[in-house]
Task: inverse folding
């Protein structure tokens, strides 16, 4: 008796209705950059970037939809754009990447990175096979501006690099019964906020030799022009003798999320701010969100949420020895790969796969972003902690830019001296970026001096000419993460005669991506739907309901233990880069028939394979 088989594989995702129209195979060719032209050498106001979102959606209606997920405290809509190929299915039926920018008002380069991702995916879809496949297979939920009120203020009005940061919840910072009555102001009308000084014979400052800075006087006997530092630019609006002591801003929005929330940082209660509550509620409802990127600044960090850690029972000496072994291990790895990363983190039982996947992802992130350093991140009411802890989705907080440390640091000591900074401004920025000390008339203080500091987009947010450089690298990292979303596939099929008319039919189910089909955390939270394999057959084949468990299909091979699939199917979870084998015991009535395996995964898609069985004597 000879048994033969033929297998028909049906792909994991629906085939797109539209083929790639303008495939570009050359790295030196056109990839749609001018199909929707945009300048990436400036920051956009709320009105401008929301118009860009609506305009690009009109151009690519088959790939994008826009909605408002709610309004801010001041009534601005929080617009979210959903990007996926509608021809390949609904957005909620595909694994999704969440991206938000600028939860802190002054971190508006997060808006730029989010907008750039939107633009990159849509304009390159017809040209770039990599983008084409991602947009067909995945969904991207992009919220460019999260804290839209403070975002708008930071871009449009004169501000320091560090303010406004919080949502505009009225607060009485100085305890005088008034709310937000003493804000920063642009005294000299130059569109920037700097530091105020007054001439004072007993002052502790003087002008530097090049007249560009106020520097501290070391020798108190030194003669010449002296200055006293007044403080940041502004007025005493409430007549209490203080300047700028009650500015706009409420609780820290990235301490307002539920995971690890505490009253001191996230007051007055979790999700008190509309901008954070709207965001969290959207994510809570969309269980297809598999991972999230939250853009911040500053520091060039890839901060990932590590799983709960195991309590250490080691002595201090043992910890020290373990740390030395770890450092040696990492040093050896970096001899072959300077971007190699490793983390001396022991996680609790049941969270090993999450730690393993995160480590692999951020290793590639260090390779893609080049000068960013991966590090675990904490909780204390932060968005990324809630994304993982509360929703079971993998989460990354990206600290963008980080001052001109890498661009201006000539001696590679990890810091930028005043001399190096000014040299960088003069050469790379052709003099742009510095507020020269100058006289000004203050209505309350009389003649004062203002200046000697960087301009606004010089520290936390990069100068305009660096916006695209930062955004493009980060887009590549986001896309790499999405490319590693799980994908179930059925590959190898084997038929083994059992006895008489009974046959074992085996299949191998694999996930060759870095991420598992569900995170350990999602399983703990019971938000994950387990993968399931089912089997069906032609009328002349009967599926035998063998006892649940594993079976040895090769009597002489002790390792050939395979999970049995009965008529009710079998549930499982595929880890990253894992293959599992399943089998069904079937009875053939006649000379031929078929058996079909179907695998369905919440985040890994659906695939099925039909096996034709033919018996000839």
Result:
């Amino acid at each position: 008796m000879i048994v033969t088989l033929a297998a028909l594989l049906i792909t994991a995702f629906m085939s797109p209705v539209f083929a790639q129209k303008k495939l570009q195979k050359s790295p030196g060719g056109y990839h749609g950059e001018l199909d929707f032209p945009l300048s990436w050498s400036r920051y956009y106001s709320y009105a401008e970037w929301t118009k860009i979102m609506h305009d690009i959606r009109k151009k690519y209606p088959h790939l994008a939809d826009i909605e408002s997920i709610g309004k801010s405290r001041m009534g601005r809509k929080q617009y979210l754009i959903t990007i996926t190929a509608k021809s390949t299915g609904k957005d909620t039926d595909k694994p999704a990447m969440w991206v938000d920018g600028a939860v802190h008002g002054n971190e508006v380069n997060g808006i730029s990175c989010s907008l750039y991702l939107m633009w990159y995916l849509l304009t390159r879809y017809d040209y770039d096979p990599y983008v084409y496949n991602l947009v067909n297979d995945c969904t991207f939920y992009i919220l460019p501006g999260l804290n839209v009120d403070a975002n708008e203020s930071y871009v449009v009005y004169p501000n320091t690099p560090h303010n406004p940061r919080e949502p505009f919840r009225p607060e009485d910072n100085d305890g005088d019964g008034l709310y937000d009555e003493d804000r920063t102001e642009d005294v000299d009308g130059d569109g920037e906020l700097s530091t105020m000084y007054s001439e004072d014979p007993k002052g502790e400052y003087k002008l530097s030799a090049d007249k560009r800075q106020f520097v501290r006087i070391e020798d108190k006997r030194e003669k010449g022009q002296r200055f006293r530092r007044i403080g940041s630019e502004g007025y005493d609006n409430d007549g209490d003798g203080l300047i700028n002591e009650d500015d706009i801003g409420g609780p820290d929005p990235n301490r307002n999320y539920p995971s690890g929330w505490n009253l001191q940082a996230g007051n007055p209660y979790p999700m008190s701010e509309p901008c954070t509550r709207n965001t969290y509620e959207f994510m809570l409802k969309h269980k297809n969100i598999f991972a999230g990127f939250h853009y911040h600044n500053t520091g060039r960090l890839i901060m990932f949420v590590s799983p709960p850690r195991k309590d250490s029972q080691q002595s201090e000496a043992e910890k020290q020895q373990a740390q030395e072994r770890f450092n040696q291990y990492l040093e050896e790895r970096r001899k072959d790969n300077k971007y190699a990363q490793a983390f001396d983190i022991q996680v609790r039982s049941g969270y090993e796969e999450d730690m393993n996947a995160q480590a692999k992802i951020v290793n590639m992130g260090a390779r893609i972003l080049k000068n960013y350093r991966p590090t675990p991140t904490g909780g204390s009411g932060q968005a990324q902690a809630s994304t993982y802890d509360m929703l079971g989705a993998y989460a990354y907080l990206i600290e963008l830019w980080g001052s001109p440390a890498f661009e201006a640091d000539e001696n590679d000591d990890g810091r930028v001296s005043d001399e190096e900074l000014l040299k960088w401004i003069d050469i790379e920025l052709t003099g742009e970026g510095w507020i020269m000390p100058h006289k000004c008339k203050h209505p309350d203080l009389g003649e004062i001096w203002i200046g000697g500091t960087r301009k606004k987009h010089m520290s936390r947010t990069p100068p305009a000419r660096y916006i695209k450089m930062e955004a493009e690298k980060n887009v590549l990292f986001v896309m790499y993460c999405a490319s590693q979303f799980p994908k179930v596939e059925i590959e190898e099929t084997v038929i083994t005669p059992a006895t008489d008319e009974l046959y074992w039919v085996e299949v191998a189910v694999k996930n060759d991506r870095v991420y598992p089909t569900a995170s350990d955390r999602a399983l703990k939270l019971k938000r994950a739907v387990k993968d399931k394999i089912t089997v069906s057959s032609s009328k002349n084949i009967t599926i035998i309901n063998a006892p649940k468990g594993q079976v040895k299909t090769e009597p002489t091979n002790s390792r050939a233990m395979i999970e049995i699939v009965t008529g009710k199917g079998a549930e499982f979870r595929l880890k990253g880069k894992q293959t599992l084998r399943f089998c069904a015991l079937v009875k053939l009535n006649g000379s031929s028939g078929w058996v079909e395996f179907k695998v369905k995964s919440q985040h890994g898609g659906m695939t099925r394979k039909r096996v034709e069985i033919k018996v000839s004597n």
